[in-house]
Amino acid sequence: MTTDTEQQPPALHESLASIAFLLGTWRGEGRGEYPTIEPFSYGEELRVGHSGRPFLTYRQRTWALGSGTPLHVEVGYVRPAGADRAELVVAQPSGVVEIDEGTVEGMRLTVTSTLVGVTSTAKPVARVTRTFTRHGRQLEYTLDMAAMGSASARHLHATLELELEG
Asked: Counting C-beta atoms within 10 Å of the first and last residue's C-beta, which end of the chain has fewer, N or C?
């Protein structure tokens, strides 16, 4: 029996079965590069959760290795979009928002932007492709983008370990 202060976690919505492999708290390190910047290494945490509704919550943050200085953060939602399809909706404090759509193949989600919105003070971003691939307790993440007048190129690659089941 539970009391009013103890709540059972909600059941996973049935429509999330194909993207449930993303659930959890993932931490690790990555490497960033782009034609307009110097390569860099970073730490990353990705938290993917659910509320019992037909979407996953998404919160990502990165920091400089060594100093721990925050580098980037973004929040959003992963939504199922029919058989073997999903959407990622992301907002960034840099003034960029993305609507990404793509495919789910086994434990791999690949999404590409169908819309990138930027504020008048944000750096120009034209296109983003993200891939999340789970290998057991590891999640490999890549991000390719076309931005700052450059053609699409690899920007980020990280390998994250599952710290907490979602």
From this structure: N
Query: Which two three-digit tokens encode residue 51?
Result: 């509320």
The 10s digit of each residue's pLDDT in 41-87 is 999 999 999 999 999 999 999 999 999 999 999 999 999 999 899 99
Q: In CATH, what is the architecture of 14-165?
A: Beta Barrel (2.40)
- Domains in the chain: boundaries: 14-165
> Any bridge partners for residue 117, and if so which?
97
Q: For the segment 9-53, what is each residue's pLDDT rounded down to a tens digit? A: 899 999 999 999 999 999 999 999 999 999 999 999 999 999 999
What burial class does residue 126 get, using C-beta atoms within 10 Å of its C-beta: 0-12 exposed, 13-18 middle, 19+ buried? middle
